[in-house]
Amino acid sequence: MRKTIARFLCYLEAERNSSGLTIKSYREDLDSFCYFFELEDGSLPSPKQFTPADLREFISAMGEAGYARSSISRRLATLRSFFRYCQREGLVGENPAKPLRNPRKHRRLPHFLSGEEIGKLLLAPDISTPMGLRDRAILETMYSGGLRVSELVSLSDGDIYLEEGLIRVRGKGKKERFAPLGSFAIGALRDWCNRRRLAPDIKEGPEAPAFTNRFGKRITDRSIRRLIDKYVLITGLDSRTSPHTLRHSFATHLLDRGADIRSVQELLGHKSLVTTQIYTHLSTAKLKDVYERSHPLASK
After folding, report:
1. What is the pLDDT of residue 299?
2. Distances (CA, A) of 26 to 34, 49, 79
3. Residue 279 is a catalytic residue
């Protein structure tokens, strides 16, 4: 078994051109596997003697020992690759790791702001200045339309339909959708567009960037992140607040107020409903919190 592992690691280096770090990780994973199945005399079963049940026992032991799901998944990937090599070399008939599934990853609930906190953030920019007008329009548009940062910075004048209260958004995979805007966002966008047109040498036309920096160039993702950080500091909001927090807040607030999940999926531009369902967990967590604080028999 150990000789086979040594040949496998050489194969990774010579034929697969794997990095030194990758080979080190494979070696550590396989050493752990060998240690688990090592017999009292120090010997090991041959590759063909391992069954899916053996590998499940190994995976189960890692889970009981408190290994992270990501670590377990990585070791499973190592075993699949090793036994696939053994198949190629004629050492095993079937890959015993193939039937095993990775443990389901625990999805962290995204950070979002309450309605009151969102209000503080939206009112933070000083709209007596051109950049303040721009920042207010950026924040209002991101929250009102549930936009990603990349979607916001790619907006051009031709994508904005203020009379209809819509913007055309280019999402992931160049997929387009129309996002509705509320009256506050429409007003903020109109104020900014009117002010921007007063700037000298302003670029006109449907391809002109909707949001520009102080030099008249299209604003960047990094600039959006910096301005969010600036207003988070001013308002004293949670430091975890990022541009994507506005999108999370948008979805959570819609569901909290009775929107159906299919509609929220369309508004967010999610390809799969599974991606949108994370926000139902947020709403459920909020309901549970309300229940535990309010029901007389909920607390221990």
Report:
1. 59
2. 12, 21, 9
3. yes
